[in-house]
Amino acid sequence: MSETTNIVKEEFGIPRDDPRFEVLAIAIRKASSSGQFFYLQDVRMGISKARKKDPHASILAKQYVQNLPSYVSALVHSIEGPVDAVISPCSDHSGQAKPYRSGLCEKFPAAIDLTDRLTRINGKRSSDQPTLDEAVAQLRYVPTGDENKYQRLVIVDDNLHTGTTASAIILKLRNYGLPDDCDVIVAAPFWSTG
Q1: 0.85 cut: is pTM over it?
Q2: Nearest in space to 76 (alpha carbons), one of 111, 34, 119
Q3: Which residue, 142, 134, 154, 87, is CA-closest to 115?
Q4: Fewer CB within 10 A of the end CB, N or C, for the chain?
Q5: pLDDT in tens, 67-101
Q6: Is 27 exposed, middle or buried (0-12, 13-18, 19+ CB in 10 A)?
Q7: Euclidean distance between CA atoms 102 and 156, whole angstroms
Q8: Sign of CA dihedral 41, 39, 11, 109
Q9: For the chain, how big is the Rg over CA atoms in Å?
Q10: CATH classification number, 2-192, choose in 1.10.3470, 3.40.50, 1.10.287, 3.30.200
Q11: Please, what is the Cα angle at 145 between 140 and 150, to 5 degrees?
């Protein structure tokens, strides 16, 4: 499990092609290949399904599930508080980010989980690489009325690639009062540089 001990924490401009926001990106693995997180990429990209195989039955899937508690612990412990809110993007595979988000909510019980307030209107999925405008347009958010009070927001995903999805979430929340100076952390087990 030595790969989980080297948490990556870097300031990162998102989205990568046209940076508008400076966030703190935190990941267990930052690389062009997904390594021990191949299972997450497999489910997201449909690699095994294209080969008519069940991605959840692979050896890599079983290894990922076996190591999940230590991955969650490593990522959650790397995030410093206080945290006001956590949110995960709408996804066909929302269960992949849930253990990490749940761990954060347990660590920071005062943080509100905004995930259920965010839905995706029919449109491009993040794996379809929508533009930032397309990604924002396909999100619907039900505000709490307290967005203007958030000083630290953690966006939890299974993968960080370009940051378009996280940027869309930031823009959507700013429409409802999220302060420009709110600290935003994007936390994901895998940060793809490829």
Answers
A1: yes
A2: 111
A3: 87
A4: C
A5: 999 999 999 999 999 999 999 998 777 688 999 99
A6: buried
A7: 10
A8: positive
A9: 16
A10: 3.40.50
A11: 95
